[in-house]
Amino acid sequence: MKKEFVVIGLGRFGGSIVRELMSLGANVMAIDSMRERVDEYASIATQAVVADTTDESVIKSLGLWNFEHIIVAIGENIQASILTTLILKEHGVPQITVKAQNDYHEKVLRKIGADFVVHPERDMGIRIANNMMSTNVLDYLELSDEYSIMEIKASDKIAGYNLIDLNIRAQYGINIVGIKRGATIIVSPVPQDPILLGDVLLVIGADVDINRFVKKAL
C-alpha cells in the first residue's frame, strides 16, 4: 500500500518534497492558494488543489484529517503557517511537519503541537522526503551539502550477515563507522562483526550513496 502525504505550500521547498515523494512512489495531494503553482504540479502530484488552508471549512471539505502525514510548507506567511498547523492539529492529524521561518516561528509551532519542525536552510526537501519514506532512517548529521552521517536501523534483509558478506563499502561507497546495539556501541566494527536485527548502523558517506543503500538494501 502506497504511503499518502499532503503538502501545503508549493514554493521551492514544498515543491521539492512533492517531486521527491512522487518519485519514491507515494501518493501526494499538493495544495496552494495560488492557482499558477497548483497548475504547475497538476501533472506531477497525485492530486493538486487550489485552497486556503486557514479556512477550517476548506480543511474539512478536503478531509485532510484522513491523511497520516501532512507537510505545511507555507512560505513567508507565518500567520497562515501557524493557523493551518493549529487547525490540522485540532482535527487530529497524526503527524504534521512544518517549515519554520525562524527560531520564534519554530517555538510557536512546537507549542501548538507540530510534530516535526524543519528549517529549509538546514534540511533540504529531498532529504526530508527520503527520511519520511523510510522508517529505517532514524537520524542524520549533515557534514556538508553532499555528505552526512546517518543512523539507520538494520532490517531483516541484512540481519545475520557480517560486513564481509554485505560488502557495503564496495557496493555503495559508504562506511559503517559504528553499530549501536541497545546500550552498547561498537566503534569501528571489524569485517567479521555480525549485524543483528534492530541494530542501529552509523553510516557515513555521500547522501546519494546512503540513500541508494537505504532503498536497495533495506
UniProtKB/TrEMBL annotation:
GO terms for molecular function: monoatomic cation transmembrane transporter activity. Residues 135-218 form the RCK C-terminal domain. SUPFAM superfamilies: NAD(P)-binding Rossmann-fold domains (SSF51735), TrkA C-terminal domain-like (SSF116726). This is TrkA family potassium uptake protein. It holds the Pfam family TrkA_N. PANTHER family: KTR SYSTEM POTASSIUM UPTAKE PROTEIN C, POTASSIUM CHANNEL PROTEIN 2-RELATED-RELATED. Residues 2-118 form the RCK N-terminal domain. One of its GO terms (biological process) is potassium ion transport.
